[in-house]
Amino acid sequence: LADPWKYSALAAYMFLLILLGFPVNFLTLYVTIQHKKLRTPLNYILLNLAFSNHFMVFGGFPVTMYSSMNGYFV
């Protein structure tokens, strides 16, 4: 379907998203839980986004990265 280097580039991009996504989302959750002043309705929406993004970082991105390294869906 595509050149092998494109699959490698996608796998590298997914790896970068995993490396950057986990700490940013973890810090968002941690800081909001530690500081009660940040518990506002808008921040609850942001917490929900950070929490659901953890599922993507741990579930979706590794599957996409592994599939890209193989060149087909595994």
Brief summary of the model shown:
This protein has 74 residues and is an all-alpha fold. It has helices at 4-34, 41-70.
3D architecture notes:
By secondary structure, the protein is an all-alpha fold. The protein has one domain. Helices cover 82% and strands 0% of the residues. It is built from two helices and no strands. Helix 1 (4-34) packs antiparallel against helix 2 (41-70). The mean pLDDT is 93.
Shape: elongated
Structural class category: mainly alpha
**Which oligomeric state applies?**
single chain
What does the radius of gyration come to?
A: 16 Å
Number of strands: 0
Helix content range: over 70%
Distance between the termini: 15 Å
Strand fraction equals under 5%
Number of domains: 1
Low-confidence stretches: none
Largest sheet: none
- Could you give the order of the helices and strands? HH
Residue-averaged pLDDT: 93
GO cellular component, one term: membrane
Protein name: Rhodopsin
InterPro entries: GPCR_opsins, GPCR_Rhodpsn_7TM
Domain G-protein coupled receptors family 1 profile: 24-74
